Amino acid sequence: MTIRVLLADDQAMVRSGLRLLLSGEPDIEVVAEAEDGVTAVELARRLRPDVCLVDIRMPGLDGVEVTRALAGPAVTDPLRVVVVTTFDDDEYVYGALRGGAVGFVLKDAGPALLVEAVRAAHTGGTLVSPSITPRLLRRVRRGSSTRPLSERELEVVLAISRGRTNQEIAAALFISLSTVKGHVAGVQRKLGLRNRVEIAAWAWENDVVP
């Protein structure tokens, strides 16, 4: 199955480089490009790509605003957004993740990580650049409560940390999709976490993952 990708970056040379990189992969196709945030949102809503690669600093709407528009809590049918940027400022990272991004990759992290992030996003997983992960873990540890998780909630957390989608979790645990969503919401509430990226980070930090 081909992964359809939208590129959003205000620099033509960067978009060209990303297109060249991704088009070299047999399972990835770049279906659209946008040089500003407004165009990115319009194209994404019309074309419904599998993954949107979005830069942080763009005219019109920045990457965090684009992420909220396409993947935020208020979006009925959210798209999968991976932020790709040269800026690893904490406010950008947390703003993007709170906005619904399923990945945050620095442009200097290398082509292999970018391709891995696209594939992870497509399958419902998450990926954050290694240089950012320690800061994310510290934030998650400070913000987490000590309320215990049930055995079923721990199973869901483990599955999320392994990149499983809600549908895959439901099938593996023989429960309904709505039940999975309820468990995910319960985990977020108990641990004070905002999204699946932070759930996965909490799982690794607290040795939930064998």
From TrEMBL:
<dbReference type="Pfam" id="PF00072">
    <property type="entry name" value="Response_reg"/>
</dbReference>
<keyword id="KW-0805">Transcription regulation</keyword>
<dbReference type="Pfam" id="PF00196">
    <property type="entry name" value="GerE"/>
</dbReference>
<keyword id="KW-0238">DNA-binding</keyword>
<dbReference type="InterPro" id="IPR058245">
    <property type="entry name" value="NreC/VraR/RcsB-like_REC"/>
</dbReference>
<dbReference type="GO" id="GO:0003677">
    <property type="term" value="F:DNA binding"/>
</dbReference>
<feature type="domain" description="Response regulatory">
    <location>
        <begin position="4"/>
        <end position="122"/>
    </location>
</feature>
<feature type="modified residue" description="4-aspartylphosphate">
    <location>
        <position position="55"/>
    </location>
</feature>
<feature type="domain" description="HTH luxR-type">
    <location>
        <begin position="142"/>
        <end position="207"/>
    </location>
</feature>
<dbReference type="InterPro" id="IPR016032">
    <property type="entry name" value="Sig_transdc_resp-reg_C-effctor"/>
</dbReference>
<dbReference type="InterPro" id="IPR039420">
    <property type="entry name" value="WalR-like"/>
</dbReference>
<keyword id="KW-0597">Phosphoprotein</keyword>
<dbReference type="InterPro" id="IPR000792">
    <property type="entry name" value="Tscrpt_reg_LuxR_C"/>
</dbReference>
<dbReference type="InterPro" id="IPR001789">
    <property type="entry name" value="Sig_transdc_resp-reg_receiver"/>
</dbReference>
<keyword id="KW-0804">Transcription</keyword>
<protein>
    <submittedName>
        <fullName>LuxR family two component transcriptional regulator</fullName>
    </submittedName>
</protein>
<dbReference type="InterPro" id="IPR011006">
    <property type="entry name" value="CheY-like_superfamily"/>
</dbReference>
<dbReference type="GO" id="GO:0000160">
    <property type="term" value="P:phosphorelay signal transduction system"/>
</dbReference>
<dbReference type="GO" id="GO:0006355">
    <property type="term" value="P:regulation of DNA-templated transcription"/>
</dbReference>
